[in-house]
Amino acid sequence: MIAITSIAPGHKNFENQLIAIESWKNAGYEVVSLNAPEEIESLQGFTGVKFVSTQRHNKKIFGKPYVIVSAIIDYLKEIKSKHSLIINSDIIISDVGNYTQRLKDLSEEGVIIMNRLDYEEDITKAKIYEEGFDGFFINEKHLDSFPQTLLCLGQCHWDYWLPYTASVNGVKIIRSKEPYIFHKKHNAQYSKDNWIRTATIFRAEIGMLKFQNVGQVTGMVYRHIKQHLV
Predict the structure, then answer these.
(1) Which of 35, 48, 90, 208 is buried deepest, with most CB atoms within 10 A?
(2) 79-106: average pLDDT
(3) For the domain that residue 89 is a member of, what is the CATH number?
(4) 7 by DSSP, 3-state: which?
(5) Sheet containing 30-35: which strands, arranged edge to edge?
(6) How far apart are CA 11 and CA 18, in angstroms?
(7) Residue 59 contacts by C-beta under 8 Å, 6 or more apart in sequence?
(8) What domain count does the chain have?
(9) What is the enclosing helix (H) or strand (E) of 23?
């Protein structure tokens, strides 16, 4: 069982990435991080992490080597990972009640998508963040449901692309109802310009070029996801 991400050397929540990775290991995951070769040396403080070098990133678009989601999915297929959690690098897992093991059974039915719970200082006062998704638990049998994409971790819209493409390709999307993933709030790491860039890529990849307003497309997809959750 693998938790896979792309740890960010320049993350605004850098220290929380260390805490997050430890929580994944405590929940029973092997931890893998895909990174550009030039980043890996600076991340050696993360113990117990398997770093995988990749050139499949969008540095030319965003200025930093944000790893493409398809590189992660293709890696999972290559190693034949039975159960995988694709997760943002500063998300903390709280495995109360051994929920991680129950995810394995749920994943037989579809892709499990997770809303994080945001907190500022006191994690016991965390509140759910409805507008985005930070974790996806995927059974090996569903990995072929996803087409190739240019969207990447650390930027926007990949978290809508993943459940939307699963849904339109006939895979159930299941919302995790447990308080399982938590996130310490920080300033956004993306700019408005980059949001528009990823929205434009997203619109093209899902075949919605007839809609000129990228915000409209994002809203339509979000509603589709909400309507198809089980």
Answers:
(1) 90
(2) 95
(3) 3.90.550.10
(4) coil
(5) 49-53, 30-35, 2-5, 83-87, 135-139, 110-114, 172-175
(6) 11
(7) 36, 65, 66
(8) 1
(9) helix 14-26
Q: In sequence order, which residues have a C-beta less than 8 Å from that of residue 114 and are 6 or more positions away?
A: 133, 134, 135, 136, 137, 175, 176, 180, 181
pLDDT, tens digit, for every residue of 133-172?
999 999 999 999 999 999 999 999 999 999 999 999 999 9
Q: Which two tokens stand for residue 44?
A: 């050696």
The DSSP line for 55-83 is: --B-HHHHSS-PBBHHHHHHHHHHHT-SE
In DSSP notation, 145-177 reads G------BTTSSSHHHHHHHHHHHTT-EEEE--
What are the distances in angstroms from CA 228 to CA 1, 102, 222?
Answer: 26, 21, 10
At 56, list the tokens: 């499949």
HSE at residue 181, side-chain half, CA atoms within 13 A, is 28
Q: Which domain holds residue 74?
A: 2-228
Return all residues near 42 (Cβ < 8 A) that are at least 6 apart: 9
Pairing of strands 83-87, 135-139: antiparallel
pLDDT score, position 189: 65
128 vs 116: CA distance, rounded Å: 6
Would you put residue 224 in left (φ > 0), alpha (ψ -120 to 50) or beta? alpha
Secondary structure (3-state) at 114: strand
What pairs with residue 139 in β-bridges? 83
- Expressed in percent and rounded to 5, the helix, strand and coil fractions of the chain are 40, 20, 40
pLDDT digits (tens, 9 = 90+) for 186-208: 777 668 899 999 999 999 999 99
